[in-house]
Amino acid sequence: MNIDTFRDYCLSKKGVTEGLPFGPDNLVFKVMGKMFSIVSLDEVPLRTNLKCDPDRAIELREEYDGSILPGYHMNKQHWNTLILDHRLDPKLVFELIDHSYDLVVDSLTQKLKKELEDL
Question: Where is coiled-coil annotated (predicted)?
Answer without folding.
Answer: none
